[in-house]
Structure formats: structure tokens, C-alpha cells
Design goal:
Layout: E1 4-8, H1 13-29, E2 32-40, H2 41-45, H3 52-73, E3 78-85, H4 87-97, E4 102-106, H5 120-128, E5 133-136, H6 145-158
Domain UspA: 1-137
Region (Disordered): 138-159
Biased composition (Acidic residues): 142-151
Amino acid sequence: MFDTVVVATDGSESVKRAVDVALDLADRFDAEVHALSVVDASEVDASPEQLREELRTALETHADAALGTVEDRADREVKTAVREGRPAAEICEYAREIDADLVATGTRGRHGENRLLLGSVAERVVRTSPAPVLTVRQLEPAGDEESETDAVAETAADA
């Protein structure tokens, strides 16, 4: 059912659970895992010109760390990529390029406090992705994340 899974990550707390669920699905279907992080070009372009290269480098370093987290959590090979551009567009283009069967993302990223339900990037990916999109919300700290993650993964695997 799933041969290629893309995990879109920005390294935020809300994406950690999405990474776990996506890796669980990949394990269950023996799927190839791709982790993608996008350096938001609008953040770079909005910064003062004399700081752009320094900001770009810092954002690329952050993206590499986010991808490293996915690799550390996986018990299989993970193909990684860092892109620069508009995050939703880059995620969808990457999914199209590798013919992904599933794109997994958190529902709130670094800008999540400004959104009510889905983060703006997740919402755009859901609307424009060439592949089905699995959005995973972060649970409240009071819940048992491990059992909830298994339940979500089982539900998605049964779909």
C-alpha cells in the first residue's frame, strides 16, 4: 500500500509525533523513507540584506538537525533532502519527484501559534499534494503518547 513515505519536518515539537507515526507506518509496510526539510525562502528574503547569508546558513543547519532527528529515530535507511523555497510548494514538488505514496507532517510547525487547526504549511500541503497526506497532531502532555501513536498508526494502516 505504501512504498515511499515522505516525512516533512521543520524540527518543531509538533513534528516529532508525526515522525514517529510515519516511521511506524513505513516499518509496517516496509516502505522507503524520505525526510525533507525546507528552508523558508520568505524568511531569508525578509531579513536585512547583510544578514541573509548568515540566516540562510543558520536555517540550513537547523534543517540538517531536524533531518538528523528523523534518521536517529528510524531503524532503517532514511534518504534526506534540504530544499529552499516556499515550504508547501517544495514538499509537494518533492513528493511528485519521488512518486511518494504518502506525505506525513505535523499540524503545527514553528508558526503554529498563529493557526487554529492546521498550520498554514500543513493546510497547503493537504490541498495541493499529489499524494495522500497524513497530518498528525501533537497530543496534550497529560495523555499517553506511546499508546496514542500506536492507535493512530494502526488506524492509518488499516485504511
